[in-house]
Amino acid sequence: MCGIFGIASTKSTRNKLYQGLMKLEYRGYDSSGISGTHISSKLSTIKATGPIKNLRTKLTSLTNITTGIAHTRWATHGEAILKNAHPHLSENISIVHNGIIENYIELKSLLKKKGYLFKSDTDSEVISHLIHMNYEKTKNMESSIISTTKKLKGSYAIGCINTNYRNTIFAACKGSPLIIGKGINENFIASDIMPILSDTKNYITLDDDEFAKITPSKISIFNANKAISKKVKTSKINTEQASLSGHKHFMHKEIYEQKSILKEMTSRYVGTNKILSNIFGPGTDKILENIDHIHFVACGTSYHASLVAKDWIEEYTTITCTAEVASEYKYKKINVLPKTLFVSISQSGETADTISSLKKALKLKYSNTLAICNVAESTLTRLSKLVFLMNAGPEISVASTKAFTSQLFTLLLLTIVISRKFGNIESRMVKDIYKINEIIDSLYKLETDIKKISTKFKNKEHTIFLGKGTSYPIALEAALKLKEISYIHASAYHSGELKHGPLALVDKKMPVVCFLPDNHLARLVLSNLAEVEARQGQTFIFTNKKIPKKNKKVEIIKMPGCPDLIAPILYIIPAQLLSYHVALKKKTDVDKPRNLAKSVTVE
Ligand code: G6P
Q1: Are 172 and 149 in contact (CB under 8 A)?
Q2: Which site from 169, 239, 285, 305 is most exposed, i.e. has the minimal number of CB atoms within 10 Å?
């Protein structure tokens, strides 16, 4: 899994390759590399481990390269060490790969028998040697790409250069995204639109089983050996670069951006007493009126948003919902009853598990498919019949924050739209939505207290998070945030489940964080907390309920009162701040936590 970028040009491309690759760093940052051909047709390659900036000092050795391919890696097969960094070479051929070659072991042994020496432990290296072997037989790259891809099982987006083909990139894909940018006197390949936007907004999407030959002046696309013509699309994405705007980290900036994003979404979609018509696309109010069941599918943080949605929708309608993680959905038997809507949720729209789930759903008997996504022109939005774009702006920090609250907001809008036929509650719910904007400011004022509390987590190895009702997915999401960026183990439980096992973990060292909005469930959660306190656990309670602070082992983070409907959106914000401050104390790389990637494009 990884990010791919390439430029077919007659001019020097060294810096552009580096800058473009930087925009794909969200796809992984275990190692990176660039290969390019010189005017003299010589092949030069640089590689570095860690973030892409580590390539900078090596760039001078690429001074005269014109056409080149670049890669940023998120390790799947083979450790995050230099020998496993892409590009992978086979004499005069260099390749970059995003995806997983499932049959690489058998291909590797076949190639070894033919005398090929492997320098890496990756699955990707078989591609460079296979292309080389086929090219040696035919001296024709087009047929070599066809015979190579025929042999590959799994998923791939490949960029390839062969020094015998001056200023030419060959590209192919199946199951991993690849676009071709159409520039002026130079053309591009990339995993997504971002690296090419400073040069062109015009692009072609390469579909499964297609391959392309790209020179500075020509893009030729083939399906098997048949040349095909494809539509050139124009991106509408704004090229404005994301900057820190005075914040120390993107995560902090994005936590603070939630205020303006939710305000903007309110003014875009919410009227005085009702949600505006057809906000999910033309004719969608009618489509949504006809739904009896919903299947939500997502990963990570987006999955947690779907759990809240399931509770909301089932509370206010008779619609039944399921929420599945995409990596499970794909491999399960799915029973689709009549009038079932499939909803995929994804910040990036590029998560492989979610994409393949949608592909599966499109073959089943759903009445419709809706994608809730933050990135326009992503694979998910291209595949789904209905699309809701959240427009929360680029989320740079790997740990998702503003995408989560935007997803919750969108799902709340969906709940209101589909609950219309179940009673006259829209205007009351809309009133609650407006309260988000009134209350949100007071949450940021808690940061000073949260900063102090974060000290108590710094040296912990384990934590427990609790919630009940819609606060349970918030406990899951808060625990995920802490794990992701501070590397402290965190488990989330329904508060009522504590006594069925996890209570055994509680002793005087165990921090237990609880989300406790003052609602009809609060009484029960308080009993569960009493069980923790009786075992001397250290409790941190986010609540607007007046509860006596019995001893110094109880920390109360005083939340503003709010309608129960919007509590999940508000309660997660101080929890995001807590994990941020714990990570700062632990001096981790907040925006780029180890081992993770913003968008996981392999299954
Ligand atoms: C990765 C990210 C998570 C994210 C998940 C789903 O694992 O690190 O933060 O929640 O993917 O991403 P998506 O873009 O589909 O929402």
Answers
A1: yes
A2: 239
Same domain, 228 and 244: no
Q: What's the pLDDT at 552? A: 78
**pLDDT score, position 1:** 60
DSSP string, 279-324: TTSTTHHHHHHT-SEEEEEE-HHHHHHHHHHHHHHHHHSS-EEEEE
Helix ranges (DSSP H) in 420-565: 426-444, 447-454, 471-486, 522-534
Whole-angstrom distance, CA of residue 211 vs CA of residue 160: 11
Q: Check if 2 is active-site.
A: yes
| Ligand 1 pocket, residue 299 CB under 6 Å | yes
Query: What span, in angstroms and rounded, lies between the C-alpha atoms of 139 and 568?
Result: 61
Residue 347 Cα to ligand 1 middle (Å)? 7
The parent domain of residue 207 ranges over 2-234
Could you tell me if 293 and 321 are in contact, meaning their C-beta atoms sit under 8 angstroms apart?
Answer: yes
Domain finish residue from 234, 266, 300: 234
| 583 backbone φψ class: left, alpha, beta (φ>0; ψ -120 to 50) | alpha
Q: Is the CB of 168 under 6 A from ligand 1?
A: no
Domain of residue 64, CATH code? 3.60.20.10
Residues 224 and 244 in one domain: no
| Ligand 1 pocket residue status of 325, Cβ below 6 Å | no
Note whether 468 and 407 are same-domain residues. Answer: no
Low-confidence spans in the chain with pLDDT less than 70: 1, 238-242
User: Which candidate in 174, 213, 253, 598 is catalytic?
Assistant: 598
Å from CA of 328 to ligand 1 middle: 15
Index of the ligand 1 atom closest to the CA of residue 375: 14
pLDDT of residue 240: 58
What pLDDT shows up at residue 239? 63
Question: How many structural domains compose the chain?
Answer: 3
597 belongs to a structural domain: no
Same domain, 257 and 212: no
CATH code for the domain of 387: 3.40.50.10490
Going from the Cα of 246 to the center of ligand 1, the distance in angstroms, rounded, reads 25
Host H or E run for residue 572: helix 567-586
The response to whether residue 304 sits with its C-beta less than 6 Å from ligand 1 reads no
Confirm or reject: Cβ of 354 under 6 Å from ligand 1.
Answer: yes
| The pLDDT of residue 241 | 52
- Segment (H or E) for 22: helix 14-22
Assess whether 139 carries a catalytic annotation.
no
User: Which residues make Cβ contacts (< 8 Å) with residue 448, sequence separation at least 6?
Assistant: none
Ligand 1 pocket test target in 592, 598, 602 with most atoms within 8 Å of CB: 598
Q: Ligand 1, residues 76, 299, 353: which to mutate, most atoms within 8 A of Cβ?
A: 299
Whether 400 lines ligand 1, by a CB cut-off of 6 Å, is yes
Instruction: Specify the amino acid at residue 347.
Output: Q
Ligand 1 atom with least separation from CA of 380: 15
Q: Model confidence over 79-124: pLDDT tens digits?
A: 999 999 999 999 999 999 999 999 999 999 999 999 999 999 999 9
| pLDDT at site 525 | 95
